[in-house]
Known about the structure:
Largest sheet: 6 strands, mixed
Distance between the termini: 46 Å
Number of strands: 11
Strand content: 5-15%
Shape: elongated
Mean pLDDT: 80
Amino acid sequence: MASGNTQIIPYSPAPPPPSSSSSRSTQQFTYEVFLSFRGEDTRYGFTDHLYQALISHGIHTFKDDDELERGGVIASDLQKTIEESMIFVIILSPNYANSRWCLDELVEISQRQRLILPIFYHVDPSDVQIQTGSYEQAFVDHEKEADEEKREKIQKWRSALMKVGNLAGYDLQKIQYEADIIKKIREVIVTRLNLTPLCLGDKIVGMDFHLEQLKSMMKTERDDVDMVGIYGIRGIGKITLAMAIYNDISSQFDGSSFLRVDGETSNGGLLELQNKLLRDTLKDQSVEIQDRSEGINKIKKILCSKRVLIVLDDVDKIEQLDNLAGKKGWYGSKSIVIITTKDISLLNQHGVDKFYEVKELNHEEAIELFNWLAFKQNIPRSGDFKDLSDCVVKYAGGLPLALKVLGGFLYKKSKDEWKSALKKLEKIPHMDVQKILRVSYDKLDDTEQGIFLDIACFSRGEGKDFVSRILGSGADVTPQNPGVR
């Protein structure tokens, strides 16, 4: 929030109107934000600073002195631009109402059923609503020698000002820190646009609980950097959770990057990930580093003053963390680095101090996810399929990956085909599930693979509790005890 005498009128996002969608991918807008302002008041100050803040975050923003081609028909071009814009930011400054151009623009904007954010720049909202103060004087001038046609236009101007003046917005009277307001406006716009969300799929079960727990863990009043480790077995949903938290909070940061590390350890691979990290967080695709040492130095030098969100997904080697996550001192205060891995010992080795374990879905969650994938609804097609669904869910053991593979495999199949598949699964795991889970086995060295096979053969047909009793405390994986992995 701004300090001093600045007042922010709370903005509460309303649902988009029926004719519009909140998803950028389904809209055919040329511009995401349209700035309406009086040039002589704010062009080289507040408006320019706001414009730079928006475009630096990849928001395609229209500012009339920057976009309209010289020599074009300004009025028709501008009307078309307004029609093709998604969000309108109106900077209502003392001389805004002096401009017939601005008022015509405002009438066009007020007729659109889209998000309008008024900024009361050194004017009282009531001056805009009922045209008092400098706005009153502006209309005295407009009404001089006005004919009937102009009087009708003046009434439209007044109606548009009253409508916009009554909207929740930002009051910058006697402002001390414009940067605070610009940041707040940017966050509202980024949230509304839902910029570049990562695709999570059609059905996510149990995610609200995980997000609440994670955000609670990362909430801190200190100007510290959080490093959070998300761990769990392969296929448990770590990447889905990481993408969900990234989508949920990334708009709150100066920059963000989601890196799919995926076992990458080659020099070229880590170098490219360093380049992506810098390009994402700086919103600058021209960044180019030539070697990993240069990358580390640049990350530390450039990001140490920025609040950033970085997610490293599927980490399995300490050198990945050394080259990409680094130390807390690399990043500005209140930055967050999230690391997903199945190997909790890496988190301990790197000095991560906050841990979140992703566990199997409970029976109700597993049933909900499987039914959606197998029947495209929350319940089976008929009562006969209920027992079959329970058998599949029990077989999958609450593992989201297995539920997704099996749900897709059994979709639209008959009861006999379900029964046949279940009999086969009792002897041989589904190939797609086996392929993904085998990745963890293949990454073990020869000795570890031998131990794993000995344990598996000795414990064949037994449950998890039996194995835990035999192995003792070594079977329990916690942040303090990496256990048998």
